Amino acid sequence: MYRWCLYIILFSQATLLLNGQEIHFSQINHPEILINPACTGHFTGNYRIGTGFRSQSKSVSIPYETFTAWGDYLHKFKKPERSSLGLGVFLYDDNAGEGSLHTISGYITVSVIKGFNQDNSFKAALGFSVGMINRTINISRLVFDSQWNGTFFDPSIASGEPFSGNSLFAPDFNFGGLACWEISKNLHTSIGTSLLHINRPKLTFYEVENRLEHRLIVHGTAKNRINEWLQVNPGFYYSSQQGVDVMMFGANMLIIKENMKFLTGLWYRFERDIIPHLGVMAKNFLIEFSYDVNVSKLHLASNYRGGFEISLITIFSKKLSRYGCSDFTISKYMEPIQGF
What we know:
Largest sheet: 14 strands, antiparallel, barrel
CATH architecture: Beta Barrel
Mean pLDDT: 82
Shape: globular
Number of helices: 3
Structural class: mainly beta
Distance between the termini: 49 Å
Number of domains: 1
Order of helices and strands: HHEEEEEEEEEEEEEHE
CATH class: Mainly Beta
Number of strands: 14
CATH topology: Porin
Helix content: under 10%
Strand order of the largest sheet: 1-2-3-4-5-6-7-8-9-10-11-12-13-14
Oligomer: single chain
């Protein structure tokens, strides 16, 4: 009995936490234009298309399932020199909980990228995105304390809840900045920051004030080519929203074998999850898997099971370009490593 009470308490705490913030992806570079609109065009090539799926909290509740799809384009200007424009679109579909809380969001992202030295090794970008959020809920699948008849929850009893509707729309505005420094041909670094939900979108089914609060993000990566067959990419991610802080750090490793690249990595979401990564890159395609091993206090209820995430990305171009915040573009060993 004590054990089940403990599980219920831990799950209640986790639910309150999830209500205070948005979903957090474990593959922070996919999709990076959601994390920071300045990352639009942040790749080697002209076109990038990706899709992803994430399922989390399945072990302790009805799972939160999220689908994403995105694409962006990098255009180089002849004038002014060392300048380019990134254009992108992003779609987000999330379904959560007993009440089928369903969120569909669509965004248009724009970034302006400028190189500041002759060899274009130091670049900076500013970006913004505008979008619309649609949120719906199936009220008939919810039960409330007023529907308790002394024996069980009776859905035929009026809940008395002051719902103003079961669907809403809200505009959303986001802004970010990114700086990239190619220290050498074998070491590239980038750091960025963004502020999401600048206008604090109003998202409530009640006739009360409830807004999606500002979300501050800081992130950074380094891409270090060790030798002809090994590349190591460490990074970090920090997010703060409504008093809830999330810190994640780790590294991915690329093992290069002729025309194939194998990805493996290990990340840690502070006090919450250990996250192994596996992936394969062939030609211009990347497929990457990750799994959140829950090590928080909730692991008693979750049995260490967390969220599963998968991404599929392709990059292609008319010709290689160094005007975006790019990955390695010159290598005597093989074709350039794409900027996934």
